[in-house]
Amino acid sequence: MEREKGKKKKDPYEDLVEAQHAYHMEHAYKWLTDESVGECRRKYGLALQRGENEVDAEMKCRMELQQIYGLTELEATNVLRGYHARDYISKYRRIRELIPIVRMELEEFDPEKEE
Q1: Taking a C-beta distance cutoff of 8 angstroms, is the pair 17, 99 a contact?
Q2: What is the largest CA-CA distance in the chain?
Q3: Residues 6+ apart with CB under 8 A from 69
Q4: Spatial distance between the Cα atoms of 66 and 70, rounded to a whole number of angstroms
Q5: Nearest by Cα to 33 from 100, 85, 109, 105
Q6: 0.90 cut: is pTM over it?
Q7: What is the pLDDT of residues 1-36, one digit of tens each?
Q8: What one-character DSSP code corresponds to residue 83?
């Protein structure tokens, strides 16, 4: 079967990011931003200052991140603890803007090659 001339083969990563975007929109999740991360971490800090149990405060804030922003449990836990927040913000920005992941071929990066 001959492929039609002029038609570009669709990148499977475009399909993946479109599906992720559709899932996010279907569940009416908000998009994760610097401000939303800061607000969640502030709420977590205030809960600890009020004397709430650390585990309970973390669970409450983690569940909020999961339910409102669609984060996974690990992502929400890391955000609250201050790990990888910029990476997650970038991930969800990429999904929001339908930017597919760029797959790096192994040949493109070889630490053994000297220039």
Answers
A1: yes
A2: 69
A3: 29, 30, 31, 32, 36, 76, 92
A4: 5
A5: 85
A6: no
A7: 445 555 666 777 888 899 999 999 999 999 999 999
A8: S
